[in-house]
Every structure is written in structure tokens, then in C-alpha cells.
Fold this sequence. Notes:
Blueprint: H1 8-17, H2 21-41, H3 47-59, H4 68-75, H5 80-93, H6 105-114, H7 117-130, H8 133-146, H9 152-168, H10 173-183, H11 189-205, H12 207-212, H13 219-225, H14 230-246, H15 252-267, H16 272-285, H17 291-304, H18 309-313, H19 316-321, H20 328-341, H21 347-360, H22 363-380, H23 384-398, H24 406-416, H25 421-434, H26 439-458, H27 471-483, H28 489-502, H29 511-519, H30 526-540, H31 546-549, H32 560-577, H33 585-599, H34 618-623, E1 638-643, E2 646-653, E3 663-670, E4 676-684, E5 692-700, E6 703-711, H35 716-719
Antiparallel strand pairs: 1-2, 2-3, 4-5, 5-6
Amino acid sequence: MVVPSLKLQDLIEEIRGAKTQAQEREVIQKECAHIRASFRDGDPVHRHRQLAKLLYVHMLGYPAHFGQMECLKLIASSRFTDKRVGYLGAMLLLDERHDAHLLITNSIKNDLSQGIQPVQGLALCTLSTMGSAEMCRDLAPEVEKLLLQPSPYVRKKAILTAVHMIRKVPELSSVFLPPCAQLLHERHHGILLGTITLITELCERSPAALRHFRKVQILRLLRILGRNHEDSSETMNDLLAQVATNTDTSRNAGNAVLFETVLTIMDIRSAAGLRVLAVNILGRFLLNSDRNIRYVALTSLLRLVQSDHSAVQRHRPTVVECLRETDASLSRRALELSLALVNSSNVRAMMQELQAFLESCPPDLRADCASGILLAAERFAPTKRWHIDTILHVLTTAGTHVRDDAVANLTQLIGGAQELHAYSVRRLYNALAENISQQPLVQVAAWCIGEYGDLLLAGNCEEIEPLQVDEEEVLALLEKVLQSHMSLPATRGYALTALMKLSTRLCGDNNRIRQVVSIYGSCLDVELQQRAVEYDTLFRKYDHMRAAILEKMPLVERDGPQADEEAKESKEAAQLSEAAPVPTEPQASQLLDLLDLLDGTSGDVQHPPPLDPSPGGALVHLLDLPCAPPSPAPIPDLKVFEREGVQLNLSFIRPPENPALLLITVTATNFSEGDVTHFICQAAVPKAPLRLKLRLTYNHFHQSVQEIFEVNNLPVESWQ
């Protein structure tokens, strides 16, 4: 018995009623067999019903390619019900990869010329969906005629089809350029919206169209028309100011218009007052109850903060309030904008707000917040003591979320601030006594106690409350760190070294320290064991050298490599300009060797007798040589970042006239198919050599990307 074919509604109910995927496949296979049989029999009455069922099967992900030719037959039919299903099938089953799509060109041309609006609409929708370049070239004249038809229904679809044609074949811009001027006078909002889209495509793909529409005053076009064009931007200023001040924001449509206005002001060469007005509009958006509007405002202000920093600064209190948002995306954007607003004048107030946010922010934001606070403090710290207090607060609050270089930075900062050694060691001792779970804090505290333990016991720091600490308490605290299960091997290494250094700074007996050191001589951690064995050997065999070996670290200068080079140059210039002492004979001989090298003589040349050691002798002759400085050696480029086709490279140049100056150029390249927008690259040079910190923020593939990383592998030629 042959099972009859199902109707579309019955097929949908039976497929939805299938309890397993196997049952669903069985139903679809049976019905596809009926559909194939009907196509073979050539039933013209029910062909559109069979194709409709096949399209539903195709939407579920099952193969339906055998219905392509049936689409062509239905499109060629004179019945509207057939054409409707046929055009729908063509949009779903045909594309440029199949040659069959070219077979409907003549049918579409005939339907566009019939004058029946529903049929013309079907043909235009199909052409704008799957029309290839060849079809666009063949049917462009028909679409051009429909752009000026009386019916708004047909004109709206013809405009959107023209947009598709220009995207496929940009040289067709000359065909659709003349009707645009007339379409701009339409009152139908759908036609106006489509015309704006069409003109936008024309301007982006045709320089002639861009010149043609320079004077057109349409809001959504102004961004393109005024970009990098001074005269057009000046003409637009008054119009944009009127739109920005007269738009009603009681409805969301008004907010959308204002946002478009702000984007246009940001992209063209607008007047300074107009840009301030745009920033103020975004500031009002921050007070809106709609979260989406607040998010858009934060994102836009983040783009403007580099070019209009002072205008954005006026809304700093509102931005800080957004840190308390419960929505994670809003608080993240507010954090990024708050960090970008930090400067030398507001660093104290902003750090208080950011530190308060750090204590209560979600865990996934703590790393970014801590890193941003440390970078801002390193860049804008008003005093060394404030800088130390800020880093200590971050380590105490979110020590497990800070970057690995935080310990080295703080120890270097404390080491270079001799006047704050006593203050720092007491602050760190108190913090360590309260909490030993934050490993970076414990490491810095152990290092500081080992270096300046004598100042801790002296108790002569007037900047904080008096603290009476004896030697046993200090040793017990370090032993507690060594024995804690929370301590990392590196942390135990810091504590063991601190105990060893205290053996030369404390006045009591060192037997307790020696016992602890000997215990860790059999530790399972190889590095800690080696360190303990070496310290024990220092006690037993080289005790007379222990005080010299374990003396305090020298003061560390934090002026950076460039200042070091300048100081070195000034020192050498001072040495050369001052009166030189009378050189001895070996010095004269060395000068002669240098002269021989400059003259390019061979090694067999005999030296003349020593010169007269007088102020007009060898040194003066050497300085009078017309010797040009050697050209700086080329420095290789360095790739520092790559993610999903986005690449960041550094190139280095030393100007010949100033070899001590190093110019670093950052080049960002996008090798992917997706656009990169809202790209922001922020660089910070810490006050220590061989490091560069970069922060990238951009949108790629409709996703927000933020990367913070450190470049510590700069070429040797860049710093030597």
C-alpha cells in the first residue's frame, strides 16, 4: 500500500512529534521520496506545494539540491502562487556557485517589465539576495527604471537591489548616481532610508560620487562626506549643532539620532566647540536609565579620551559612578575609561576610587584593575612614598591578581628611596603580620625585612605609629612564612634569604637562623635546597666573609636608560673639557695605539718614541682628529603581538645626529578578513631598563578585545 504524500502542515507536525533524530530522518526520507516522484511525474498543479515542503526540509539542514530546477519552472509559470514559492526557493537553494542561477535571468527581466507590483517585488528581492555580478550587469537598466516608478513599494525594493548591485559591481555606480538626487526629495521614510544607504555605498566605492554628494546635507552621510575634508566639515558644523541641540530625547529614536550626530562630529574635522558638545551629549547618555545607552556612551568616550581629553575629564565623576554598575560589561568599560582619565593632576583622587573598586569588583576584573592601577601609579606618582603606599594597597587587596613584575618593581622602588627604607620595612612588616596569603606581598616584605631589618628593630621611624619589635618576633614571622602551606617555593626562597641577611643585621645569637638553614638543606625543592646548602657552607667555612657577602644592596637608580645615557655623555664631556692631568708613559703609549688603529696601519708598524707629556701632547692631537662618528648599526624589527590576523611590530631607529636617542615605531597590521575598529594602543615605559608595557583595545569580528602585555625581549642593539 502506497502511503500518500503529506501536506506541509502535517509534515511539520509529524517532524516536531518525532521523539528521536532517527524518527525524524525516517519521516523526512519518506517524504523526500514522494517529492522526487512528484517532480518526475511533472505534476504542475501541486509542484509549488512539493517545493514548499522541500524548502522546509532544507531549513532543517537536510539536502534539497534536487529541487533547484523546479524553482526555475515555478518562476517561469504565469501563476502568482507558483512564482512566490519559486522565487523563495531560488533565494534559498541557488547561489553564485551553481550555474543554474543564470537560467533565471531572463525570467527576472520579464517579471521586472510586466508592471505587476507583487511580481516585481519578488523578482527584486531575489536579485538583491543571490544576484551574481553577471546578473547585475544584465539587469541594471531594468532596476534603474524602477527607481523612479510611482509605487513606493517597488521603488524601495529597487533601491535596495541597487545597493546590492553596487557592492557586486562597483563600476555600476555611474548608472545609479543620477536618480539619487531626485530620490532625496521623497517623503516616504522607507525610500529615504534606502536612498541614504545607496548614497553611502556610492560614496564609499566611487570618488566621483563622493565629489558629487559633498554638498548633500544628510546626517548619516556627513560622516563619509566630511571625513578628511576641511571645507565640507566646516559647512556641516552649523547643521550638526542644530541637530544636537534641537533633537527630542524623550524617545529612543531621538537618542539614536543624537548618537549618529556624535559619531559624525567625531569622524569629521569639526570645530572644537562642537566636539565639546558631542562629549557633553555622551555625558548625558551616562545618566540614562537604559544600560545599552550607557554602554554606548562609555565606549564612545573611550574613543574620544585621546583626542579630547579635557572635555571628557569634565564627566569624570559620572564615569567613576559607573564603576558601581552591576552589569559586568558596563563596569569593565567604566574601568577602562577611568584608567584612561588618570593624569598627574587627578591621580590621588582617581586612585582612591579605583582602589575602592578593586576591593569589591568581580574576580574577572581584578587583574585588569590591579594592572591598570600599577601602571598609572608608575606613570603619575606624585611622590615615592605615595607610590609605595599605592602598590602595597594593591598587593594587600589583590596580590594574587597582579603581574609577575610587580615584586621586582616594588623592590626596585624601595631600594632607590633611601629616605623611605625605615618607613617601608615597618609598613611591610605590619602587612605581613596580618596576612601571609598574598604571595607577592609576602615576597616583597621578606626581601625588605632582610635588607633593612636593622631599621625595623631600631624603631626610629617618625612617619608611622611607634612599633616595638624584637628579634624573636621577626624570626618567628619569617619561619611562619617558611612553614606555611600557602607559600610558594619562590616565597620560601625570599624568606630563607631574608633570614640569612638578618644574621648580619641582628645583634643576638645566630644559632636559630643556622638551625633553620640546615633544615632546608634536605628540602625536596632543588633550588631551595641548593640555596640552603650554600648558606650553611657560608656559616661553616666562610663565616669571616659572611658580613661582606650579605651587605645591603646598593641603591638602584630608576631614571631609565635614556637618562643613564645622558648622564654618561655629560660625564664624559666634563672629563674631556676639564684640564687633563699629566699623562704617564703607558697612557701615551695607549693613545698611540689608538692613533695607529685610526690610521689603518698594520700591526708590524713600530711606534715612535713617547711624546712630550704636555697639555699640547697626545690628548690634544687625538681630540683634533677630524673623525666622523660611526653610523649606528641597524636594529632588527620585533614582532610583539599576534592574534587572529592582527599583528603588532616594533621598528627601531637611532638618528645619526643623536645616536643616544631611540625612536620606536609601532606598526599594527590586520591580515584577517574582518575589520578592526576602535583601535587604541597605549604604551608605558617603566622607570627601569629593557621593558615596554603595551595595552591594546579594539573590536574585531564584532567582539571587544583587550590585551595587556609586556615586551622584555627588546633587541640588544636598542639598549646597548
